[in-house]
Amino acid sequence: MDKTDEQQETSTDDGIDAQRSIIRESLDEIAAEVGTALLNANLRFPIGITTPSSGHAIVTIVTPLDPSDDDWAHAGAIVRQIVSKKLGGISLQSRPLTCAMVNATMSGAEITPNALTFDMRS
User: Fold this and answer.
1) What is the layout of strands, in order, in the sheet containing 48-50?
2) pLDDT in tens, 81-95
3) Are 58 and 84 in contact (CB under 8 A)?
4) Do residues 103 and 83 make contact, with C-beta atoms less than 8 angstroms apart?
5) Collapsing DSSP states into helix, strand and coil, what is residue 44?
6) How many structural domains is the chain composed of?
């Protein structure tokens, strides 16, 4: 990696860290807004929202349930819109993220690979 690439990567990392900080400080407000928007869209499944501490993602969402692909995509679009607005309207993209739950009081049928991670659109 040459010096220009290294400077660009550091600058991008600083930007992502700053955006994560904004989201962390507003997480309760974002969760409340997402909850209301999900109910208004008749999407009645729980969503967990977190900000990762590394990588390129700004926000990750998960659910312990298995909503339809259309409902999950709609929920992801709602979260993406609310987070984008909180970050001044930046364009975000979603990427699927494989996950599993362990040591949870759920049956195997309730464990789902549903998760999305959001990062800046290139």
Assistant:
1) 48-50, 59-62, 115-120, 92-96
2) 999 999 999 999 988
3) no
4) no
5) coil
6) 1
